[in-house]
Design brief:
DNA polymerase, domain 1, about 20% strand, 13 strands, 5-stranded antiparallel β-sheet, Dna Ligase, domain 1, alpha+beta, DNA-directed DNA polymerase, magnesium ion binding, 5-stranded mixed β-sheet, 16 helices
């Protein structure tokens, strides 16, 4: 048994250019190039004309003279990346970021609560589109390498599952350029030897591949061509924040509805802090308005905490302060993140009696949620209310 196809590779499509098209509706459907002297990114409309990343600006103009060239806005790309990664981490705690616009996610073991890996990927793509406004392609496979190849093959804005029994049929006919680590120089060397597909490379013995390409490169590529990639999703990099957000649609929301949604988000994030034995120092509120503008508010608490009541009080105060903007512009998305995380045992509580009472309540609720599910206990304010779109509740673990 080869195991389940449970590794997701999620990759935002033409990331910088897609952010520009999202924020400027008049650019949608048109060829867009980010960067002047050198192409930093190109929309799929520009790619169809031959424009590629790292190409010189003059060559790009010759290929696509009607392209709209825009300067890069790194702050906008960084903010979009944070929002997407918040969705990744709301999907599963096992996330390995590769770059600003792509990550691996391990979703094995979530079938009972969240469905199959494909169902999880479908929801993830829907959330990224609804909450961040960007297209994302996802590949699903047993290994990281195959998942990455699958996402590349599925582009643009696609989803592709490679089940274990179809791995060879999927990979071997592909060009060698699809192998992770084959650049232009290596590809040219292989082509000169008549090796153009992954299957042709896989037919060689490992010693022959190492003689042709060098020991390290040859061994690496030969292993991939023969479907060997033992690397797990690596989550050892410690995160400095956790967060979650909800898309609200375009209809007006009352303060009471917003409070219910805010409470749900804070409840879940606080539980994630406690599950990981973490405390946080800063609460950040992120809002997106009906006119596509955004706002961020934050507050740093005195002693770092993981107590739901304390964090909810701070989040409510931030939301109350933003009510004038919400009333004026409408609201389409609300997000909360906890940042400046530290270990739970690194902070000595200042008020042990009060904190013990809060800790006792939180511990009881966490135990009920663990045994009977996240929906088993709700706050009285949530009864009879439909707060809108919410993400599935998934198990959290380090």
């Amino acid at each position: 048994m080869r195991g389940e196809a449970s590794v997701l590779h999620a990759d935002l499509d033409a990331f910088y250019a897609s952010v520009e098209q999202r924020d400027a509706p008049e650019l949608r459907g048109r060829p867009v190039i980010v960067g002047g002297g050198v192409v930093l990114a190109a929309s799929y409309e520009a790619k169809a004309r031959g424009v590629r990343t790292a190409m010189g600006g003059r060559q790009a103009h010759d290929l696509c003279p009607d392209a709209v060239v825009v300067p890069p806005r790194m702050d906008a790309y960084s903010e979009a990346s944070k929002e997407v990664f918040a969705i990744f981490r709301d999907t599963t705690p096992l996330v390995e970021g590769i770059s600003i616009d792509e990550a691996f996610l391990e979703v094995g073991g979530l079938r009972r609560i969240a469905g199959t890996p494909e169902q999880i990927a479908v929801r993830l793509r829907e959330r990224v589109r609804a909450e961040v406004g960007l297209p994302i392609s996802v590949g699903i496979a047993r290994t990281k390498f195959l998942a990455k190849v699958a996402s590349a093959v599925s582009k643009p804005d696609g989803l592709l599952v490679v089940e274990p029994d179809r791995e060879e049929a999927f990979l071997l006919p592909l060009p060698v350029e699809r192998l992770w680590g084959v650049g232009a120089v290596t590809a040219e060397k292989l082509h000169r030897l008549g090796i153009r597909t992954v299957g042709q490379l896989a037919e060689l013995e490992s010693d022959a591949t190492e003689r042709l390409l060098g020991k390290a490169t040859g061994a690496h590529l030969h292993a991939l061509a023969r479907l060997r990639d033992p690397r797990p999703v690596d989550t050892t990099r410690r995160r400095g924040s956790i967060g979650s957000q909800r898309a609200l649609g375009s209809r007006p929301r009352s303060p009471e509805e917003l409070d219910v949604i805010l409470t749900q988000i804070v409840d879940r994030l606080a539980r994630r802090l406690r599950d990981r034995d973490r405390v946080c120092r800063t609460v950040v509120l992120r809002l997106r308005f009906g006119d596509f503008t955004r706002a961020t508010r934050s507050h740093t608490v005195g002693p770092p905490t993981d107590r739901t009541a304390v964090l909810l009080a701070v989040a409510r105060a931030l939301l109350d302060g933003a009510q004038p903007l919400i009333s004026e512009r409408g609201i389409t998305l609300i997000g909360i993140s906890f940042s400046k995380l530290d270990r739970g045992d690194s902070v000595q509580p200042e008020l042990p009696i009060d904190w013990d009472e809060g800790a006792r309540l939180d511990a009881v609720l966490d135990a009920v949620h663990d045994r009977f599910g996240a929906a088993s206990v709700a706050r009285a304010a949530q009864l009879g209310r439909d707060p809108g779109v919410s993400a599935p509740v998934l198990p959290e673990h380090e």
